[in-house]
Fold this protein.
Amino acid sequence: MKELDADQIGRLDLALEPVFKGVDQRIVQRLREEAETEEARRALIEQAGIDDPKLIEECAQLGVTIYGLVALRLVPLVLVAWAEDFVDPKERLTIIEEARKFGIREGSVAEALLDYWLRTRPSRELLDAWKRLIQIELKRLTPKSRRHFIEVTQEQMERVAKASGGKLGMGKVSKAERQMIEGLVYIMEKASRS
């Protein structure tokens, strides 16, 4: 079977958008219900080492369980993709490629969350949850590892921004994408110092 290019995927996404919207809402509602259980909250505490009650509550509201937690680490890529008010199909493909590198498999809970965030503009709560998670994760790393983490995340964000080619389609990062990248790097650097 011939693989679709980004433009074909974009046209297909637009044609199927009404179908996806209903399915996405049902999937996320089911994930939220599961994430709000005591068992799911306990797994975040015991298996992920998260002891921040606010983060646990935000994860529950977002439908993020221990199985979807890895998707939360890719929020900066999602935010860069949304910097220009829509997600370009090429940006979507780049994010999915990065997700595969993180071990997010097709059909997984993490992929379902990531797909939802790429189809539905993320809420402020998603950014807040990511910031809390990053603060926890960066505290666990050595200063050198923190720097490396931030650099890798910045490189990933730039790959996403360059995927769509900016406004003129010439492999450039748009002003909105650059501002988003700089803002997210600032958040990570600030978290690494606290």
In short: Confidence is low (pLDDT under 50) at residues 14-23. The longest helix spans residues 6-35.
